[in-house]
Design brief:
single chain, alpha/beta, nine-stranded mixed sheet, eight-stranded parallel sheet
Length: 465
């Protein structure tokens, strides 16, 4: 048994000082109480003055993904090791359906990737790019087998047209699953790319990536899919929401009764377009921050924080999609070839605490809701994860708000050769992490070998009411 003494347990409802007894054999929380008596066979960890969170859940990662003529630098081994260091005890990765693959083949491919070892528990969303009748039947079968969420794209070469998007939503909703949508208008983006491409010099400016994807293309696509959801009375998830325009559309459609869950990411809460100073186009520096949707204006950053304070955003995930600078340089002559994505899974909790709690007065209860409880509810994990409750998995994060650390590529675990937050000093650190009763991070150091396991998920709580 492991006894965590004198910690301040954080939930969306309260912060309360309690002891927590962990059963190492079952991997569950055995008991939560005031002043649990110590026994000679207990391993004692006195966490006085520190906060105890339920293990964080990152429901948006891309490990070992082949995209943009390359493959993300972090596989499941390095990616989940970075995740567990940052307090993330469960990830949900996007299993992508490559050309000519069935959904079953795609899922088996992703399971094989993860079988090489994961440091945290994991599940998958199934990305759908082909919605033939057989594929939709496979989709329904997957929901019954514990893959209860899906990713649908409205841009890239895997985009679904409106008819196929609607049919996919029908099939997913009919079986009790839920879809997360990448909302950007593909046609408008392509039109911008064609216009920019007429000047070869413009193609060398990574800044043009942002110009080709203005906030309106996100808001328009989001509006369109929310109307589809309204017709079906289906819940959807707006993933990586970035801007005021999208938030306005969400508010309007929520008033019409549409159930739309909203995800945003650390990059949209901490970076803005000032880094894309058009008069100082340092390719390597700019390309580090190329992602889709792109980084927005300062006003959008503040709008997202205001929405968090008002309870309008449900989760903060990372969209971790890591590359090296050499991979980014594939687009040095043509910004359209820059692989989009950032390495963030390692830093999410500490950045959200430092930027949100420490600087913007977001409370710790909200942090727990955004990083643990809400993703557990939405993604069908709330019967065992996301909460500090007796009988739940002993996935726990000891967070020390009295310590600081400097973020740097020199100390990061991700295999990317740069740190998006290089040199930033964060107030508050993830100190210790427990995964199903095993201490896997001690004093910020990852211990032992991979302990992660596949998690079969239930339907979202929306369907369980």
């Amino acid at each position: 048994m492991i006894l965590l003494k004198n910690g301040k347990l954080v939930s969306s409802e309260e912060i309360v000082k309690k002891d927590v007894l962990i059963n190492e054999e079952t991997g569950k929380i055995e008991k939560i109480s005031n002043n649990i008596k110590e026994k000679s066979n207990y391993k004692i960890n006195d966490i006085s003055g520190k906060y105890l969170f339920a293990g964080f859940i990152d429901a948006h990662t891309h490990f070992d993904l082949s995209v943009a003529n390359t493959t993300t630098i972090d596989d499941f081994y390095s990616g989940t090791k970075a995740a567990i260091r940052g307090g993330t005890t469960t990830i949900i990765d996007y299993a992508s359906q490559y050309k000519n693959e069935t959904l079953k083949e795609a899922l088996n491919n992703w399971k094989k990737k993860a079988s090489k070892g994961t440091f945290c528990d994991y599940s998958f969303h199934m990305s759908i790019s082909d919605i033939s009748k057989n594929q939709l039947e496979e989709c329904k079968k997957m929901i019954r087998e514990g893959i209860t969420s899906f990713k649908l794209y409205m841009t890239y070469d895997v985009a679904l047209n409106d008819k196929d998007l609607f049919l996919a939503l029908c099939a997913i909703y009919d079986e009790g699953g839920i879809a997360g949508i990448h909302c950007e208008n593909a046609g408008i983006i392509e039109a911008f790319k064609m216009a920019i491409g007429q000047d070869k010099n413009d193609l060398k400016l990574p800044y043009c990536h942002m110009i080709s994807r203005p906030p309106e293309v996100e808001a328009e696509a989001l509006n369109r899919v929310m109307y589809m959801a309204k017709i079906l009375d289906a819940p959807i998830i707006a993933v990586h929401t970035t801007c005021r325009e999208s938030l306005d559309e969400i508010r309007r459609m929520r008033e019409k009764g549409v159930l739309v869950y909203v995800e945003t990411c650390p990059q949209y809460l901490t970076f803005d377009t000032d880094m894309f100073n058009i008069r100082n186009q340092n390719f390597d520096e700019i390309s580090k921050y190329i992602c889709a949707p792109p980084i927005r204006e300062k006003e959008d950053v503040e709008a997202l924080w205001d929405a968090i304070k008002d309870g309008e955003i449900d989760t903060i995930a990372t969209d971790h999609c890591a590359f090296t600078l050499e991979q980014k340089r594939m687009g040095k002559e043509d910004y359209r070839k820059i692989p989009g994505g950032m390495n963030l899974v390692e830093y999410r909790a500490e950045i959200i605490y430092d930027e949100g709690v420490h600087k913007k007065n977001i409370d710790l209860q909200t942090m727990s809701e955004l990083l643990s409880e809400n993703p557990a509810d939405i993604y069908g994990l709330s019967d065992r994860k996301g909460y500090i409750e007796e009988g739940y998995d002993a996935d726990l994060v000891v967070f020390n708000t009295h310590k600081k650390r400097k973020l740097s590529v020199k100390t990061q675990i991700s295999k990317s050769d740069y740190c998006a937050y290089e040199g930033r000093v964060v107030n508050g650190i993830v100190e210790d992490v427990y995964l199903r009763g095993k201490e896997v991070v001690k004093d910020t150091k990852v211990l032992d070998e991979p302990q992660g396991t596949f998690i079969k998920r239930k339907k979202t709580y929306f369907f369980n009411d």
